[in-house]
Amino acid sequence: MNQIQTITLPVEGMTCASCVARVEKVLANADGVTGAAVNLASEKVTLTIDPSKADLIRLAALIEDAGYKLLLPATESTQALSASPVTSVENHQERHYRELKSDFILSAALTIPVMIVSMISMTDWFMGWSPLSMDEINKLLFIASSVVVLFPGRRFFESAWRLARHFSADMNTLVAVGTGTAYLFSSLVVLFPQWFPDASARNTLYFDTAATITTLILMGRLLEAKAKRRTTDAIQNLLTLQPKTARVRRNGNELDVPLGGLVVNDIVIVRPGELIPVDGIVTTGSSSVDESLVTGESLPVEKLAGQGVIGGTLNKNGSLEFRATAVGNNTVLANIVRLVEEAQGSKAPIQALADKVASVFVPVVIAIALLTFVLWLLIGGIPFTSAMINFIAVMVIACPCALGLATPTAIMVGTGVGASHGILIRNAISLERAETIHTIVLDKTGTITEGKPSVTDFEVLNGFEKSIVIGHVASLEKKSEHPLGAAVVSYATLNGVETRPVQEFVAIAGLGLTGTIDGESIIIGNMQMMERSGIGIADARGAIDRLSTEGKTPVLAALGGRLCAVIGIADTIKPGTKNAVAELLRMGFEVVMMTGDNERTARAIGIAAGIENIVAGVLPQQKAEHIKRLQSGGNVVAMVGDGINDSPALAQADVSIAMGSGTDVAMETADITLMHSDLKGVVDAIRLSKRTLLGIRQNLFWAFIYNIIGIPIAALGLLNPMVAAAAMAMSSVSVVSNSLRLRRFKL
After folding, report:
1. What gap in Å lies between CA 141 and CA 221, rounded to an integer?
2. How far apart are CA 728 and CA 721, in angstroms?
3. Measuring CA to CA, how many Å separate 469 from each of 166, 537, 553?
4. How many helices (H) and strands (E) are present in the chain, helices listed first?
5. Global confidence as pTM
6. How do strand 33-39 and strand 562-573 relate by DSSP bridges?
7. What is d(CA 344, CA 419) in angstroms, rounded to the nearest whole number?
8. Cα distance between residue 351 and residue 608, in whole Å
9. Using an 8 Å Cβ cutoff, are 537 and 544 in contact?
């Protein structure tokens, strides 16, 4: 059975929301296609296909028949198609931009003299000075305008004709009819003056209108294309993180191999200042690694043997050798690029309004333009040429370019900003839904806390020297595999205390450890362990009660038969947790902590984090049931967890946010993945969501306002077609520029 695949391919020729709707409709009806989402801003279509039924060449033919062009990769292998097509998309966009620029320069170079001559040729002084007759001047205007309309402007007519053959229309239809009408009428007056004696006598020509509209629309598209290239900066920045080659050790030899030649389990060598090529586990060496462009963390992260490294991060000051664990499309960086692309190509529910309008917009506009022409001609009593100008103005001002760009440009920039700060937003639906969150449920372990025990208190009793006690306790715990023991060993390392050899080591399940160091007995464990060993704990009662009240685990130690220390061990709160919780509360969210820990420990952690609503002692399935209760009454609930232990709750929540490195299943299932483990990322993700949705609403306002105001004004005969063309072009530029403002949004 063939697995459903998702591929992303460039599409040429789309200019407005109507184009998007038509391409999606054609693809949705094709065999083997189960889903098609077109993004006008990136000029891409994301297809969900069944490879056994979908024929890409056939799909390309269907798209071309509809008036557009689907660009296929060099290989027809569906396996290759699943790889990221960013490079081909960028080449396509770059080529499109260069073509637009060339056409605009030619169009502008001819339009400017056409406009100037058209205006001054009506004056007596010009005709008295000019060696040419008016008929000769008009023929020169005809030649120059013909070049503008038929060469740089050919794209409008070609697309309009392809669509007309299928009884369809889009923005190109509006431009082609508008400019074509002005150009054709003026050409007939010049070439066949006997057919239009009144227009010929009055020299009523509109070459300047046709040429100027063409040039202004090309200028708008050029500015739009230039701005749209910047919306893909996030992906391009990510793609530049990987080096082209890597140094590996094979069969005892070191050699440089292309990045594509790396395989899992290769031993990779990274020197100071070099980029880490792929994901792996450090085997030898230590260094600090700058992971800021992948995780958003500003401070370098220390890497030792046994710790993971992420491809694309920068090795700072030490040499590392690591075993490759993921290469090619399986690396964290490749997954990030894929997720960002998918998010940028997805549609937010708010875009449904634009899609509905676009589906009927062009036919309605053509009807309004024709009605304007007929009413002015028959009822308004104005000349044919004046009625025609009003018709052209309506056609031009109505072009819905901005409508198709309003949502995707904001989503592309918003998700790109998030990716550059270690916030991966899965799709536009998640982005929009995050704006409506009412309640935020936080898992305790790994979300609020570090997720691993550490020593918080080390109180020495009965006159023992602290460094000696730490050394002996750590030496004994080093023989143990218990997580609490690892915390003690780590504490000794941080305090610069060395461990010593242990003899006669014994671990007693559920109680503690015993052993001998330099002939002196040492016992570590809980109260029951001390009582069993006959060691009095009266001196430690106060410390034990205090630690228990604070939600910490008290561990007792005895040397030579005497109690020597009380150690407090707990899963400590992350440094930024309290500030993040305070910010969430300030923003008006209800914050709930949910944990399987006992009530006392949970309450202590909650108080330290500034959380009052605490649900303790719940199993994973019970967490999901509690979230369901919180959702009653229409509350939108977000769940923040590690993406594995909290999977039932994450699945139940309206918005799931996964904390951590992003290397596990969380990246595949969570609505939002935080590449770093700081709770401030939740605040940033929600703020980014709100700001992006604000940008979309602003864009939709500007897209609609131009048409809502412009069409009636044009229909009333109060709008010059050239002004209409400039306004239409600026509507698209204003929408894209407003979206690009998101890049300056501070997280």
Report:
1. 25
2. 10
3. 87, 17, 19
4. 28, 26
5. 0.68
6. unpaired
7. 11
8. 43
9. yes
Confidence class for position 276, pLDDT limits 50, 70, 90: very high
Joined tokens for residue 199: 């227009």
Length of the chain: 747
76 Cβ contact list (under 8 Å, min separation 6): 56, 57
**pLDDT tens, position by position, 605-618:** 888 899 999 998 88
CB neighbour class for 393 (10 Å; exposed up to 12, middle 13-18, buried from 19): buried
Strand order through the sheet with 287-290: 301-303, 287-290, 314-315
Assigned token pair, 683: 């605040």
Q: In a 3-state reduction of DSSP, which class is residue 557? A: strand
- Token couple for 700: 């939709």
Cite the active site residues: 443
Furthest C-alpha separation in the chain: 124
Q: How many CA atoms lie within 13 A of 336 on its CB side?
A: 35
Contact 439, 630 (CB under 8 A): yes
Asked if residues 738 and 702 have their Cβ atoms less than 8 Å apart, the reply is: yes
Residue 46 makes CB contacts below 8 A (sequence gap 6+) with 6, 7, 8, 35, 36, 37, 38, 39, 341, 342, 345, 346
Cα separation, 335 vs 294, whole angstroms: 11
Quickly list DSSP for 424-446. EE--HHHHHHHTT--EEEEEIII
422: left (phi over 0), alpha (psi -120 to 50) or beta: left
Phi-psi map region of 551: left, alpha, beta (phi>0 left; psi -120 to 50 alpha) = left
CA-to-CA distance for 455 and 139, rounded, in angstroms?
91
What are the C-alpha distances in Å from 507 to residues 476, 484, 527, 533? 10, 13, 15, 14
Residue 361 tokens read as 């917009």
Residue 619 has a CB neighbour count (10 Å cut-off) of 10
Residue with tokens 């403002």: 741
pLDDT in tens, 226-237: 766 665 665 666
What is the H or E stretch that residue 289 is in?
A: strand 287-290
Q: What is the DSSP string of 3-39?
A: PPEEEEEEEES--SHHHHHHHHHHHHTSTTEEEEEEE
